[in-house]
Amino acid sequence: MKKSFLLMLWTLGVLFNVSAQSEIKKWYSTLELNGEKLPLYLEVTADGKKVKLFSPRQSEKGFEVQNWQCNEKTMSWQAKSLHIEYSGEWISDSAYYLGQFIQGGFKAPLKWSSKETVTPIKVYNRPQTPRPPFDYNTKELTFDSDDHGKRIQLSGTLVTPKGDGPFPCLIMVSGSGPQNRNEELMGHQPFAVISDALAKKGWATFRYDDRGVAQSEGSFSSATTIDFALDANAAWKIVSQDPSIDSKRVGLLGHSEGGLVAPIVAAENKDIYCIVSMAGPGVSGSQIILQQIEDIAKAEGESENAMFESLNMANAVMTFVRNEKDSLSAAKTIRKYIFKVQRKKSKAVKQAIYNSYNASFNSIWMKKFIDLDPLPYWQKVQCPTLILNGDKDWQVRWNMNANKIADVLLKNQVSFQKVILSDHNHLFQYSETGKVSEYSEIEETISPETLESIVDWLSKLP
Q1: pTM above 0.85, yes or no
Q2: Which is more confident, 44 or 391?
Q3: Exposed site from 129, 356, 371, 421, fewest CB < 10 Å?
Q4: Gap between the Cα atoms of 366 and 370, Å rounded
Q5: C-alpha distances in angstroms, 347 versus 232, 344, 351, 357?
């Protein structure tokens, strides 16, 4: 839910430099998602034997591209570390390659052009990102989890303060979408920043790559929130066995979807020490999605007609995904519906709208998430809980989520604190509007007030 489920129409125009005069050829692109523009480019050696993919607003480093094939008819490649695949055909009349981009369970049509039309790339400053040398200890830790009957190995970083342990520890669980251990997004590394702050206050942390991401094995695209709960519990078990960690004081910190994973784990594992829920959902996935569409549309200044059209289509598409027997059947029903309600638009526009909705909603994860209600899990939680939300969060609105969680914990006499941070967005940055389009523009990764709220609450635990 870090990424809005509002229409995910990805427009990517990539430019192929066919000049042979330079040893390095560059392909450029701009990815547009909910008002956010992410420049991308590829660097290709003249012989085509070495190719790197760059997303400068998300990471300074380039990612190796494998299986590069490009000729006058087709282009295809993979970026295995990012679980990206692309395959396209040359459209001579329009002078671009047209194909399909795949990352995890997300699919979208992509164009690759031969002329540079993107704006200059701006690399944003991220002053809070921790830089070595660190004044705490770090070590790589691997652990096993279950991927539909198959054993997979996940990998993460255990951070412990300097000095004598054992230390209390928080397992950090990321939000939706394939996330690495730092929960990296648009150059921000929220989990690295939180971990750094906690280490300086005597708390250990463990943050890990999602299954199928970076150094972790498994399939992300076939996983649901319940599978991610298995991973979080497995992480808790291995960390609790580490000699530097106080096994009686190992809790969970979850952001967004991670704030749903945490109570799922704690509902069954009564040894969970505490929960820090950062923008965690308190209502079903379908309610969150519809509210996201409404709130983000208003924040971005969309007309009421456009907003209601998006709400109606999203509601219908979720119903198809919920009721159809498999994704292929759902895709056929979604396409038929989109082409009917958008009949006045051109075929190309209707196809683009269908591709967007089908990619956003027709997945194994979404089918489960739509009807997943957090409250039955929160009903079983007995550990102390910090409910942390921003009042300008348009992705997980605080008053319909934090209040629901608080009501359950209060009724069950579970110790909790609810903190609603003024002028904070979904990423817990100070924000003027809360718009998704502001996320990359804001240099701050996590506000000092957010970090202080977490540290202060943890310091008061028994």
Answers
A1: no
A2: 391
A3: 371
A4: 6
A5: 44, 9, 6, 15
